[in-house]
Design brief:
With 65 residues, the protein is mostly helical. It has helices at residues 3-20, 28-60.
């Protein structure tokens, strides 16, 4: 994965965990599952948008499912 995106996902996960746990420090064991889940959600979202765009273009050309 792109280093920029992985740093962004880690920052998002860390911020969410810090909001939940105000006093306790955040460990890597807590961050890793969240980052992996965000990674899966982002990849699924991208795939969904691609398939929607393909469907719109195929409908525009009159192709059937």
């Amino acid at each position: 994965m792109n280093p920029f995106l992985s740093k962004l996902l880690v920052a998002i996960a860390r911020k969410r965990l810090q909001n939940k746990q105000a006093n306790n420090p955040v460990s890597k064991k807590q961050i890793v599952p969240l980052v992996r889940r965000f990674q899966v959600e982002v990849s699924h979202g991208i795939k969904e948008y691609i398939f929607i765009i393909i469907g719109v273009f195929s409908a525009g050309f009159g192709l059937k499912g």
